[in-house]
Design brief:
Elements lengths: L2 H8 L7 H23 L4 H5 L4 H20 L3 H17 L4 H18 L2 H26 L6
Helix pairs in contact: 1-5, 2-4, 2-6, 2-7, 5-7, 6-7
């Protein structure tokens, strides 16, 4: 898939309501604690993030909730895709492996399902499901030389 096709697919996501985004934002600190515990409990964590990257992983989770809040407040599919491409490039250059995003996003899906109201979950979970389903395509694009996407 091309970047333009992925951006078009992201454009099909329905913006979350202000109420749902506010709930997500209000719970974000707690959600970060939960995702950190979830991933740090894995016996294979270092095969996902490389050695000495726990702090970087934790920072990623904190930044992730801030980014997702901003994206959902002012939804722009191009910003979503471009930022994910940048994140993949940056974190892979520090030793993170593709499998990390699959595990992380599945972890977010479980945590958000448990922690968000049904209304907020129905509006926010599609963003995570979309990211999970498009990570292989985004990873491929992130590995290409910039400008050839």
């Amino acid at each position: 898939m091309t970047k333009s096709e992925i951006i078009a697919e992201a454009g099909r996501l329905k913006a979350a309501s202000e109420k749902s985004v506010m709930e997500y934002e209000a719970k974000s600190a707690h959600l970060v604690v939960l995702i950190n515990k979830h991933l740090e409990a894995r016996t294979d964590i270092y095969s996902l993030i490389g050695q000495d990257n726990l702090s970087m992983m934790r920072d990623n989770h904190l930044n992730h909730t801030k980014f997702m809040t901003a994206v959902m407040k002012n939804f722009n599919p191009q910003v979503l895709v471009e930022t994910i491409l940048w994140v993949l490039r940056a974190y892979k250059s520090h030793g993170f492996f593709l499998g990390y995003w699959d595990v992380q996003l599945n972890g977010w899906l479980g945590i958000l399902t448990a922690e968000l109201s049904m209304e907020a979950g129905a509006e926010i979970l599609p963003f995570y499901q979309w990211m999970l389903s498009y990570i292989p395509h985004l990873d491929k694009l992130s590995s290409e030389t910039p400008g050839t996407e």
